[in-house]
Design a protein that fits this description.
There is one protein chain. This protein has ten helices and nine strands. The protein is of the alpha/beta class. It has a seven-stranded mixed sheet. Strands 5-6 form a two-stranded antiparallel sheet. The protein is globular, with a radius of gyration of 20 Å. Mean pLDDT is about 85; it is low at about 70-80 and about 295-315.
């Protein structure tokens, strides 16, 4: 029987005033279990917009999300109309249950249909993507590369545009690392490069979970058969991205990015093991992953921790 501890370097990061944990001892124990298990037992599910991508610029402005590649008023004015945005907000606040989902899906389909009707081209989309200030967080590229190098299946899961995510990753990393799967709303262009449809299924924050992935696919198999899971998100909806994988909660580490929304801290702490309040780096998940993929494997029943002090979609 071998005891394991969370490295002091990681504990030091977690002691920052910017880091919040409602169950610090249990969280450290969970991190230790993942480290002991190593890369072969790990899979990762991460949101993209304002999770892997930067949420706030140096000047304090909120940076764009992937759908905003389409929403610039100069290119697609209908999607940027204040009345349209207010209608979406009303659906979110006033509807509930299946009615809410139906309304939200109808809104998104109408928005997507408007983009198709406008006749957007692939060339135009790529130009808009180049002009839209979507950037990876510090250490996001290193995190994805470390996971790829270690053979850890990684799902980048988004209710945004998978085409825009692919563009950002290729621009930042020179390509999409092996083993990194992107699932989001995908556009379909014809041979002339004209947008003809958005592929199904339509993904939005309330249905973005593993149930939309074909259970017979290699992706679903790799995510569901590995017993340890790391989940990264920036919303309460991201807490259910692994729904349908039947993972044990004690073996799933959830890290949430609050992005300065202090009024949501209490809610985040109910679901996320670690909440990063304002820091715009992804250093903590990267450091934890580095320990996991570089760890030796032990047979252990007892884990000891030091108390803390203070674009493409793949359904096949």
């Amino acid at each position: 029987m071998v005891a394991a501890t969370v490295p002091a370097s990681i504990q030091s990061l977690l002691e920052s005033s910017d880091i919040h944990m409602s169950r610090p001892v249990q969280t450290l124990e969970k991190i230790s279990r993942l480290i002991v298990g190593g890369a072969d037992r790990l899979s990762v599910i991460s949101d993209f917009d304002h999770t892997l991508s930067l949420a706030v610029g140096d000047d304090g402005t909120v940076l764009p999300v992937t759908h905003q590649v389409l929403g610039d008023a100069l290119v697609l004015p209908d999607l940027n109309q204040k009345a349209t945005q207010e209608k979406y907000a009303a659906y979110s606040k006033e509807s509930s249950g299946s009615d809410k989902l139906a309304m939200l899906e109808a809104w998104w389909r109408k928005a997507h249909d408007g983009v198709v009707a406008r006749g957007l081209t692939l060339k135009e989309f790529e130009e808009r993507a180049r002009q839209t200030d979507i950037r990876l967080r510090d250490s996001s590229a290193e995190l994805l590369q470390a996971l790829s190098n270690s053979g850890v299946p990684t799902l980048v899961f988004s209710a945004g545009l998978s085409d825009a995510i692919s563009f950002v990753l290729r621009r930042a990393m020179g390509g999409i690392p092996d083993g990194v799967h992107i699932v989001g709303n995908e556009m379909e262009f014809d041979e002339q490069g004209k947008l003809i449809a958005f592929k199904t299924p339509l993904l939005h924050p309330f249905n973005k979970n593993a149930s939309v992935i074909d259970k017979c696919s290699p992706l679903h198999s790799s995510l569901s058969t590995r017993p340890h899971l790391l989940v990264l998100g920036d919303s309460l909806c991201d807490l259910t991205m692994d729904k349908g994988l039947a993972k044990e909660r004690d073996n799933t580490l959830r890290i949430g990015f609050l992005n300065g929304q202090s009024d949501k801290l209490a809610q985040f702490l109910q679901g996320y093991d670690i909440v990063i309040a304002t820091n715009q780096s992804i250093e903590i998940p990267r450091r934890i992953v580095e320990e996991i993929v570089g760890a030796k494997k032990y047979d252990t029943d007892v884990l000891r921790v030091k108390p803390i002090m203070g674009i493409r979609k793949e359904y096949y």
